[in-house]
Design a protein that fits this description.
Number of domains: 1
Largest sheet: none
Oligomer: single chain
Structural class: mainly alpha
Length: about 290
């Protein structure tokens, strides 16, 4: 197995681990407060990596401004939507539904760039939609029951992930330092989340220490996943890396079975995840 593949699988594991850790954290902290600490934890990881590995002598102001602009919505919006969807849907379903970012990239290319869908992409889109429909019909896991509209939370998070990619790509064309992009983005996201909930957090007093530690761990996991993903893309092609990272919902199911006994999926829910993940992989392969 290549180094890129190992790093991509490491990123998938860290993304899945973050979903599971969020469930432990939500037992001691409300979802509105948790991004303060998860984004803060990721900020620490991103800046430690950036200080060690970024060549700051090549700093480009225009690129930094692009990264900062993206940071005002990503990852802060995705973190807010992610923790809410995890709370309502559970880690396995939230991960599966939220992993449809390639759909928005493909639809954007069709609508705005005049590109046509190939057979693999059409099959992938159909499988992703079918998999999400199976999850919606199943209606929950681990004793959860939710309305179909709740699926909009992880879908909105996926939309944000897809929307910011062109901006990040243009910034990296000016300054090819993805770790710097992540560090600057997390810094701005930290400012945004503090402005949104910082005053309320102060008014309600200190958070429970165990909750803070759980969501710092969530941030470390997400920050590590981002670092591993960038490193994998630096070594290998997206046709190798992206499908492997797209396996993180399945890893989440395994971790849920091991660590969260109350989060077990029934057969239809598991089938929905398998179908949607397979669809994402076909979508990615069809676009390369």
């Amino acid at each position: 197995m290549s180094g890129a593949a190992i790093l991509a699988l490491g990123a998938a594991f860290c993304f899945a681990l973050a979903l599971i850790l969020t469930q432990f954290g939500l037992r001691t902290m409300p979802s509105w407060r948790s991004p303060l600490y998860s984004i803060g934890g990721a900020l620490i990881v991103a800046w430690l990596a950036a200080i060690l590995f970024v060549d700051w002598s090549t700093f480009n102001l225009d690129a930094a401004l692009i990264f900062a602009g993206v940071g005002c919505i990503f990852p802060v919006v995705v973190s807010i939507l992610g923790v809410r969807s995890n709370e309502r849907l559970g880690p396995a379903v939230a991960g599966a539904v939220g992993n449809v970012t390639p759909i928005f990239a493909v639809l954007g290319a069709v609508l705005f760039l005049g590109e046509r869908l190939g057979l693999l992409q059409l099959a992938g889109l159909a499988m992703v939609v079918g998999g999400v429909a199976l999850l919606a019909l199943r209606g929950g896991s681990g004793g959860r029951h939710w309305s179909v509209w709740v699926l909009g939370l992880p879908l909105a998070a996926a939309l944000v992930r897809g929307a910011i990619q062109p901006a990040i790509k243009s910034g990296l064309a000016l300054w090819p330092e993805p770790l710097a992009a992540a560090a600057i983005g997390y810094a701005l996201s930290s400012v945004v989340i503090v402005s949104l909930v910082g005053r309320r957090a102060l008014r309600e007093g200190p958070a429970i220490r165990s909750g803070v530690l759980w969501f710092l761990a969530v941030g470390f996991a997400n920050g590590s996943a981002t670092f591993l993903l960038y490193a994998a893309l630096g070594l290998g092609s997206i046709t190798v890396v992206a499908p492997l990272v797209a396996l993180f919902p399945l890893i989440g199911v395994v971790l849920s079975w091991i660590l969260l006994r109350g989060e077990q999926l029934h057969a239809i829910g598991l089938l929905g995840i398998l179908v949607s993940v397979a669809g994402v992989i076909l979508l990615l392969l069809g676009g390369n």
